[in-house]
Amino acid sequence: MPVVIPRRRIAAVVTGIAVALVPPSLALTSAAGSPATTIALPRAAAAPALVAAAPLTVSQAIGSQTGQSATVRGYVVGQPTATSTVVRSSFPSDYALAIADSASETSTSRMLYVQIPSAFRSSWGLRSNPSLMGLQLDVTGALSAYFSHPGMTSTSAFAFSGSSTTTTSPTSTTTSPTSSPSPTGTTSPYDSTYYTSAIGRTGSALHTELHRIISSGVTTLTYDQVWTALKDTDQDPGNTNNVVEIYSGRSMAKSDNGGGVDQWNREHVWAKSHGDFGTVSGPGTDVHHLRPEDVTVNSTRGNLDFDLGGSAVSQCTGCLSDGDSFEPRNAVKGDVARMIFYMAVRWDGGDGFADLEPNNLVGNGTAPHIGKMSVLRQWNLQDPPDAFEKRRNQVIFDTWQHNRNPFIDHPEWVTEIYGS
Q1: 149 close to 83: Cβ distance less than 8 angstroms
Q2: CA-CA distance, 402 to 393, in Å (whole number)?
Q3: Topology of domain 56-168, per CATH?
Q4: To the nearest 5 percent, what fractions of the chain are helix, strand and coil?
Q5: What are the DSSP calls for 289-328, one per residue?
Q6: Residue 175 has pLDDT above 90, yes or no
């Protein structure tokens, strides 16, 4: 005889299967597809949610000097060398850094002094990594005085804010160590703020959005102000009284600027005759492409395009030139390329000036073009941004024009826009 199972037992079996297989948040439906009465299903005991505490601000950390461990988020503003002294250049050691809630903070009363243990000094000390200036970090340690000033000691972790990767002490196993942003520039501390609307774009869409970003909220300098700016942006990290010349690489006294032989003057890396924009406020005063250079070397470069080859240039070791092009020393080839690509994105013809664009020619004369683009693309890859170039970009952003050269933060964007 067939076994007859009562309807109630069938319903109980079906309900039991549903309890086992259907998430509690879902309601059962009838066979016809119409919503059935929601059945209250049993829930397993939930594990407590693990929610990481938000980092403290520097202001909060200054007011919480109780010795407890905490993570604090702030901008690197210098190196403390005494209770009321924080230096912003020519850093004497890698032993400490000062952070603040603003990258432009100058009052030591609003800074937190962070002790850097020996295990972290090569990666996070300012003497070894001056390009950290102005960048936002998350640091973890004990909130206790350093230099008799509100601080953090026994520091156990450093990370760029918004990064998922942290440098921890050798005894920690919670994360994988790293010492600096990706050398290819594929990530930047400004990706979630300054560049947020550009991330993920390519080609002309990336060009358009970067132009909008770097043209917004910009302070335009006069040509006279450029003298003062260059004494800050191109300061010799080993001698605060000097600047470093772009092509020759020589360190020259800041005060020895002018038009005389062996003085330094203002070199337009994008030659101002290429588009005939002169020195009125605009592309001719954009300090992202203006650099100190020896008067004689500047004259030799003149308005030549950039390319390989030629004869040795007097007073500029490693530089070559011929009738239609100039080749800088290897150490700044990428710097030159990224300045040229910056100018092309920043000055696109919408500000009353010529539309500046690189091309693959030399001998461009007064046309608003500079070449040779294939060589410049190669220089960008050959010579990635170094600490001096990154610091310069940060100083321009913080103090002078308040915009950034995106190709220093993201060198790979040259390929995204201009090809390989």
Answers
A1: yes
A2: 10
A3: OB fold (Dihydrolipoamide Acetyltransferase, E2P) (2.40.50)
A4: 30, 20, 50
A5: SEEEEEHHHHHHHTT-EE-S--EEETTEEEEEE-SSEEE-
A6: no
Residues with Cβ within 8 Å of residue 61, at least 6 apart in sequence: 70, 72, 74, 112, 143, 150, 152
Using alpha carbons, select from 332, 260, 331 the residue that is nearest to residue 294: 260
pLDDT at residue 205, rounded to an integer: 96
CA-closest candidate to residue 330, choices 292, 384, 374, 288: 384
Q: Is 408 helix (H, G, I), strand (E, B) or coil?
A: helix
Question: And the tokens for 268?
Answer: 């337009």
Task: Give the closest residue to 249 by CA, choosing from 303, 335, 317, 320.
Answer: 317
- Answer yes or no: are the C-beta atoms of 133 and 149 closer than 8 Å: no
- Token representation of residue 103: 């990258």
DSSP 195-232: TTTTTT--HHHHHHHHHHHHTSSPPPPPHHHHHHHHHH
pLDDT tens-digit series, residues 185-235: 457 889 999 999 999 999 999 999 999 999 999 999 999 999 999 999 999
Instruction: Determine the 3-state secondary structure of 387 from DSSP.
Output: helix
Query: What token pair was written down for 375?
Result: 């060589």
CA distance 95 to 80: 9
Select from 211, 257, 217, 213 the least CA-distant residue to 349. 211
Q: Yes or no: say if 286 and 267 are a contact pair by the CB < 8 Å rule.
A: no
Element (H, E) at 142: strand 136-142
Q: Residue 86 pairs with which residues in a beta bridge? A: 80
Domain boundaries, the chain: 56-168, 203-418
Task: Give pLDDT, residue 148.
Answer: 87
> Which tokens in the block code for residue 258?
């002018």
Average pLDDT of the residues of the chain: 84
- How far is it, in rounded angstroms, from Cα 95 to Cα 100? 17
Q: What is the pLDDT of residues 347-374, one digit of tens each?
A: 999 889 999 999 999 999 999 999 999 9
End-to-end, the C-alpha distance of the chain in Å comes to 80
Contacts of 129 (CB under 8 A, 6+ apart): 123, 180, 387
Residues 9-50 pLDDT 10s: 444 433 443 333 334 333 333 333 434 333 343 343 444 444
Q: What is the percentage of the chain residues whose pLDDT exceeds 70?
A: 82
Those residues whose C-beta lies under 8 Å from the C-beta of residue 351, and which sit 6 or more positions away, are 215, 282
Tokens of 131: 């390009």
